Structure formats: structure tokens, C-alpha cells
Amino acid sequence: MLRLSYDGLDKNAKEIFLDIACFYKGMTIDFAKEMIDISGLFAGGIKVLIDKSLVSISRWNNLEMHDLVQEMGRAIVYEQCIQEPGKRSRLFIAEDICHVLRNNTRTETVRAIFFNRSKIGEPHLDCADFKKIV
């Protein structure tokens, strides 16, 4: 049933939904809108997601999404290429990010990389790892 709600969205709203599921859940609406605008999408698509009850705004002005809805969004991204993380549109899992940066397997499909550096653990990434993908 959740997937039907996603499938019924237009391209812009689908992309925003995946961004929120992978990166912006719990972030302020203003921060998310700014990042969405920077990425070339129309941040007004958030209202569509709210209207379809896929996301909500907390009383602290943060984007919220039920864990099952977030899991579905992340699964959609993961399904893009199970074998090679560098072929997915979004990277948000620390191990996948390390793999892509260290092995230089990023492709043009990667739209964004977002991670909490404190969750990377060992081995640590350094500037040289990021320079490989530029």
C-alpha cells in the first residue's frame, strides 16, 4: 500500500521523498528546502508528500516520516543496484560510502552522499578519498 502512494507521485515528489528518506528525516524544514532547491528540485513538492501523509512537520518544524515509510524509501534506493553502491542515486550507509570512495566506483547516478562522520568508524576516510570522486 505504501509503495502505491510512492508510485503515484510525480518525478519531482519522488526525488524529494527519496531525499527525505535517506537524508532529511529529523532535519528542519528550512534546511531540507534549501538543500532540495540546491539540488535542482522544486521544494514545493514537500507539500504533496504532506498531503499524501508520507511526511509530516513536527511542532519543532522538523521533517518527520514513519520508520516503515523511511525503510521503503531507502529500499527503493538500495534496489537501484544491490551489487555496486556507486550505481545508486543516494549514498547514506557508512560502509557503502567508504567502499565507493576508496574504490572510486562512483557513477553519474550518484546525486548525493550524506553521512554522520562519527558513524564511519575504522577505517577513517581522508581528503584523498574524496578527491578521487571530483
Automatic annotation (TrEMBL):
GO aspect biological process, one term: defense response
Keyword Protein biosynthesis: no
Keyword Iron-sulfur: no
SUPFAM superfamilies hit by this protein: Winged helix' DNA-binding domain
Domain Disease resistance protein Roq1-like winged-helix, residue spans: 11-80
Transmembrane regions: none
Cleavable signal peptide: none
Keywords carried by this UniProt record: Repeat
Domain of life: Eukaryota
Protein's recorded name: Disease resistance protein Roq1-like winged-helix domain-containing protein
Protein's organism: Prunus dulcis (Almond)
